[in-house]
Target: WSS1 protein
Amino acid sequence: MARQSDCRVHSIRHAATLPESDVALRLLERVQRNAEAILRARGWRVLELVELCCCKVAPEQKPGSVAGWCIPAGNAKTATRIALRLRAPKGQGHRIMPFEEVFGTMLHELTHIIHLKHTAAFYELMDELSKQWEQLQATGHILDESGFPTVGGHRVDPMKHNPSIGLATKLQAKAAEQRLKVNQLMGSGKLGGQRDWKQLPMREKAARAAERRASEAKLGFGPEELPDEGDVSSAPEKARLAAEPARPAVRLAPKRRWCQRVGCSCPAPHPDLPVKPELEDKLLQEAILASLAESQSLQSQSPSVGCIVLSDDEGDAEFNVRSESAL
Model:
């Protein structure tokens, strides 16, 4: 693990020539300060944090559909560079985005230090970071633009150790609203009464990860947000990806080709079918008759199931043949 003094965002860069560049710089500095608690807890570091925009003058240029960008060093503790979109795209007025939205993107990009792809393991870790961020919010560890701790978006007054009940209620409501914004952005699995990732079987993890990928792609975290594997500067990340469970692949029969299933009576793979439909029908009938004959010869044994699949350009047609005992 890196030294505690090294677990931080080391440098920042913004687009100094764009409008409201001073506001953008303060926003980037606030992200830098507030990320330090998470980086220290995880033993991570970010060498450079830069502004991402659709304009050429930005330190990092990407289309408006990309919300952030991370280049991991590959050692499971360092990000060489993280880029965050601080402004809405040009067509939406280039307005400065809220801190909660930008920091939600920061949590997403920090997760890429460990997991390059948007797998179930990626979203499990991102939800952990989101919960950790909520805890920091609840304890007043969030810093405002001047570096003072805040609760619910309001600076904590050190002279008021016992605020009024009304003020405390307002602060709690404001903090809950901000947590909800981050959860909605990050797609936290905590919402909706869903079970924790660790409680899910692999199949359900893969399904939930697929849903998250689809929903977050609309928020700027689609395939364009992922860095090229060539950008990862060392081998451990690739080894880690290889160890992660892959998404279940759907195997389709080749075009114009027959597939064998359990109970098929043919000793070898079926040849490519002729182009003429009438010849295809003839071969299909012959195969069905052969399977029926095979089933009838095994009547004294347990019932067997024969399955022949014909795949064509329009779709797959499946025929199941089940042998039955003689009446």
Q: What stands out?
A: The helical segments are 21-42, 99-111, 120-138, 165-186, 202-217, 236-243, 277-296. The chain has seven helices and twelve strands. The mean pLDDT is 69.
